[in-house]
Amino acid sequence: MERVLVVDDEPSIVTLLQYNLEKAGFSVTTAGNGETGLKKAMEEHFDLIVLDLMLPGIDGMDICKTLRLEKINTPILMLTARDDEFDKVLGLELGADDYLTKPFSPREVVARVKAILRRSKMAEETTSLLQQRDKQKYEIGELSIFPERYEALMRGEKLELTPKEFELLAYLAENEGKVLNRTQLLDAVWNYDFVGDSRIVDVHISNLREKIEADTRKPQYIKTVRGFGYKLERP
Question: I need a labelling partner for 3 at 20 to 30 A (CA). Which of 50, 94, 198, 209 fits?
Answer without folding.
Answer: 94
